[in-house]
């Protein structure tokens, strides 16, 4: 196979050669003038841009690569400026325009030779057709109710609101745990005998909160609970639990988590468009462990590896997460509609002159040190005299509950510890101030819920809280002294009433619209994604067909290497995998009515 650089060098020297057919072709003089051969700066610019995966792994920043490409395309940039002046537009040229012009040049030259790219060693350009004329969206997540965690709740709401439009069919794929794991994970000794029983529980919980019947499918894949990581690890090839006829669009909630030990079909080969949504700041948690710096270094590069290999687009809820390939920052989460209704009721009562807030401040969160309890106790201990008389109610359960409470008692802090409960519980309505000092969150759901209920929120000036800064009731602090000032300010004043726009921005309707836009799902649903076109002299050129992509080749190589490594049980165990999770076990076969993994699997729900 002719390498990319050799190919382009041939184009420069012999623009009349059809490399694919290996023979000369005749071109009219006028056509040759229309498509001049590529010059060296253009070749170098394209090579630098396509070498992004290599340069990224070497630590070369994206903006530096962009500047190199821009300088190499200076001649093209000058032409764009002149064109803008001629049309009366402001003479500004952004990086995207330069990229489009470079793509157009490459595509035009390739088209003039008769070359057509038909896929490489790693890639398959043939995707599944839409059999019934309706798009299919599969949402795959790492947790399920009744485990009250973000990766169980938010994907459930996402599925409901995506299905609400009825423009696409939606399937939510959640992990099924065997009875022994359910007893470790689910609260209040709640267990299920069958997937159907758990599905009924999930649907009832959801419909009580959204107020409409959500028309989407719930299916299950085998999972196992890791006590050390306090998380669920998929067992076997998760992608096989979406039938090929429905393999259209995949949304991977926590793509790094889902793919750490994924040994099966590559998501981007099976699906037309794959979007990853990053929920968790794993590096922040890992740094707190023994040998945390080394572990975080390794996990950082593994996360880069799997998200690059298995996703077309990655959405990060905030800048508090790792900067991953193909990623943009966007809050695609909303709040439970119940909290917005509570906020509306509070606003009505305040407008009538009623006293709404009869209590002071509170904190709500799972009682583990990493969830903000360390920061909270440090702040209160340092400024115990400055906050004399300040009492804080703390709600939460967790593994570190005894240690947290013992530390607070030893330091003689005025904290009142109470059992965790639903944030929508009536007992929270009277509080005026929610305090959240956590810096390990990616996007704190409790903060959004408190704002929706019309409360003040005092939180750290941290990337995880960037979305909330536009709300007037969000008071952020940079220093411990600033924390004291913000707490006193909140206790001494009344929160502002939310405007209709602010309420909408907190809703799942707004979050769904942000998700559709930033994930490029709007283009995909309109059948535009796989037909990315460039226009030249009134003709449309399909760049995805004309141009092989070095990024795609690298991504395919990374996926193949990952598949080989995750197929080795010894390597899996060395990197922390649960023994026996390369395939599902006999109990999963019994619960989900699956055939043994050695033969083709039947799937619960189809």
Q: Mind explaining what this structure looks like?
A:
It is a single chain. By secondary structure, this protein is an alpha/beta fold. 43% of the residues lie in helices and 15% in strands. Helix 3 packs antiparallel against helix 5 and helix 14 crosses helix 24. The longest helix is centred in the first third of the chain and has 19 residues. The radius of gyration is 27 Å and the shape is globular. It starts with a helix and ends in a 14-residue tail after the last helix.
State the total count of DSSP E strands.
18
Oligomeric form:
single chain
- For the record, give the distance between the C-alpha atoms at the N and C termini, rounded to a whole number: 43 Å
Q: What characteristic shape results from the CA principal axes?
A: globular
Q: What portion of the residues fall into strands of 2 or more residues?
A: 5-15%
Largest sheet: 8 strands, mixed
* Helicity range: 40-55%
Round the Cα radius of gyration to an integer and report it: 27 Å
List the uncertain runs. 1-33, 529-546, 600-606
List the total number of helices: 26
Mean pLDDT: 82
Assign the structural class, choosing from mainly alpha, mainly beta, alpha/beta, alpha+beta, or little secondary structure: alpha/beta
Break the fold down into its secondary structure elements and pairings:
Elements: H1 4-13, E1 17-18, E2 23-24, H2 29-34, H3 40-50, H4 52-57, H5 62-72, H6 74-86, H7 95-113, E3 135-140, H8 150-164, E4 168-176, H9 179-185, H10 195-210, E5 217-226, E6 231-234, E7 249-253, H11 255-259, H12 267-270, E8 273-278, H13 282-287, H14 292-310, E9 313-316, E10 327-329, H15 337-351, E11 359-364, H16 373-382, E12 392-395, H17 401-410, E13 415-418, E14 431-436, H18 445-452, E15 456-460, E16 474-477, H19 480-492, H20 500-506, H21 508-518, H22 521-525, E17 533-536, E18 539-542, H23 543-546, H24 550-566, H25 569-574, H26 586-592
Parallel strand pairs: 3-4, 3-7, 4-5, 7-8, 8-9, 9-10, 11-12, 11-14, 12-13, 14-15, 15-16
Antiparallel strand pairs: 1-2, 5-6, 17-18
């Amino acid at each position: 196979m002719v390498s990319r650089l050799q190919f382009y060098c041939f184009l420069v020297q012999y623009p009349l050669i059809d490399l694919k057919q290996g023979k000369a072709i005749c071109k009219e003089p006028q056509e040759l003038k229309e498509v001049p051969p590529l010059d060296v700066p253009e070749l170098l610019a394209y090579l630098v841009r396509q070498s992004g995966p290599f340069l990224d792994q070497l630590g070369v920043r994206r903006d530096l690569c962009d500047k190199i490409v821009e300088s190499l395309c200076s001649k093209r940039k000058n032409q764009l400026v002149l064109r803008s002046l001629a049309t009366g537009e402001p003479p500004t040229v952004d990086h995207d325009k330069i990229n489009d012009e470079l793509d157009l040049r490459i595509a035009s030259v390739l088209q003039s030779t008769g070359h057509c790219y038909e896929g490489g060693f790693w890639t398959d350009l043939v995707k599944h057709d839409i059999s019934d004329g309706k798009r299919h969206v599969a949402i795959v997540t790492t947790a399920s109710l009744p485990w009250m965690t973000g990766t169980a709740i938010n994907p459930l709401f996402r599925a409901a609101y995506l299905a609400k439009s009825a423009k696409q069919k939606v399937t939510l794929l959640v992990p099924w745990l065997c009875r022994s794991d359910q007893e470790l994970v689910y609260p209040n000794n709640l267990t299920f005998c069958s997937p159907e029983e758990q599905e009924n529980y999930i649907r009832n919980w959801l419909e009580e909160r959204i107020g409409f019947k959500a028309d989407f499918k719930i299916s299950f894949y085998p999972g196992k609970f890791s006590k050390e990581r306090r998380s669920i690890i998929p067992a076997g090839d998760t992608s096989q639990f979406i039938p090929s006829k429905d393999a259209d669009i995949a949304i991977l909630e926590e793509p790094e988590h889902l793919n750490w030990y994924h040994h099966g079909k590559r998501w981007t080969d099976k699906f037309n468009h794959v979007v990853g949504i990053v929920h968790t700041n794993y590096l922040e948690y890992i740094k707190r462990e023994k040998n945390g710096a080394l572990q975080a270094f390794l996990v950082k590069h593994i996360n880069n590896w799997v998200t690059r290999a298995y996703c077309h687009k990655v959405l990060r809820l905030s800048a508090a997460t790792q900067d991953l390939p193909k990623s943009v920052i966007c809050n695609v989460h909303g709040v439970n509609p119940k909290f917005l209704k509570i906020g509306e009721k509070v606003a009505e009562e305040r407008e009538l002159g009623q006293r709404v807030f009869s209590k002071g401040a509170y904190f709500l969160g799972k009682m583990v040190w990493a969830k903000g309890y360390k920061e909270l106790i440090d702040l209160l201990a340092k400024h115990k005299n400055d906050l004399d008389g300040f009492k804080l109610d703390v709600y939460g359960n967790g593994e570190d509950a005894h240690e947290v409470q013992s530390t607070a008692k030893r330091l003689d802090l005025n904290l009142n510890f109470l059992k965790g409960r639903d944030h929508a519980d009536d007992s929270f309505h009277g509080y005026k101030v929610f305090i959240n000092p956590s810096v390990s969150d990616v996007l704190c759901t409790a903060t959004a819920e408190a704002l929706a209920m019309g409360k003040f929120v005092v939180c750290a000036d941290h990337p995880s809280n960037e979305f909330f800064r536009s709300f007037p009731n969000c008071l952020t602090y940079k220093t411990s002294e600033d924390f004291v000032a913000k707490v006193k300010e909140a206790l001494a004043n009344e929160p502002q009433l939310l405007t209709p726009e602010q309420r909408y921005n907190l809703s799942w309707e707004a979050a769904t619209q942000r998700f559709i836009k930033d994930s490029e799902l709007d283009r995909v649903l309109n059948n535009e994604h796989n037909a990315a076109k460039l226009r030249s002299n009134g003709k449309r050129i399909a760049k995805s067909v004309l141009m092989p992509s070095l990024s795609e080749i690298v991504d395919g190589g990374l996926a193949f290497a990952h598949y080989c490594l995750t197929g080795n049980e010894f390597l899996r165990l060395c990197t922390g995998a649960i023994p026996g999770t390369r395939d599902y076990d006999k109990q999963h076969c019994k619960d989900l009515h699956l055939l043994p993994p050695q033969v083709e699997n039947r799937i619960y729900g189809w």
